[in-house]
Amino acid sequence: MRFEIEQKFEPKLESVESLTAEAEFVGEKINHDEYFDNERYSLTTRDVWLRRRNGEFQMKVPFNEDIKDRTLDRYQELEGEEAIAEYFDWDLSARSFEDYLNENFAPFIDFESTRQKFGHPGGFTIDIDRTDFDYDMLEIELLVDNKEEMPEAAERIRNEAKKHGLKVGYRYGKVIELIRRQSPEHFKKLVEAGVIKEIKEDNEN
Known about the structure:
Layout: E1 3-9, H1 13-20, E2 24-37, E3 49-53, E4 56-62, E5 73-79, H2 81-88, H3 97-104, E6 106-119, E7 125-131, E8 137-144, H4 150-163, H5 174-182, H6 184-193
Antiparallel strand pairs: 1-5, 1-8, 2-3, 2-6, 3-4, 4-5, 6-7, 7-8
């Protein structure tokens, strides 16, 4: 089991060029993401994100203790139907994963994004996503083997971002931004639950 620490940034051209100058280009692919929840939003209001990406199921379970640290995301990543079924206590010897899924959850959002992935010599993974709804994202990520390593990893991400002129602060992820645009009620529930904080349209001057 590994733990993911990541931070999201606006992919401004100069910062992207600086950040990736020494990085190795890993590849580019198109991701089709479909996210699942129920009518009560019982997963997403607990910051649990169940998705099917290009036909494969994945789920992120949070380690954030409160909203004050939402500039960085800390998640345990569950890969595949068996790991997700174990989390929900679904008995796959009795019924199929699809049966349980359809009984408990339904897709609420889907989109495509083109992802460029880079491997940074400092051990970071850099993802640059261009979405089909005109909202682009840069993510810097580190994977660690235990929770004790997470604070140091978070500080390394912040320092690397600042070095390349990236603004360290709170930014909606792709899914949250699409929810904000398409489902104001769902977005409001996430704000009320403390999963996200609402970014006010303040004057930048």
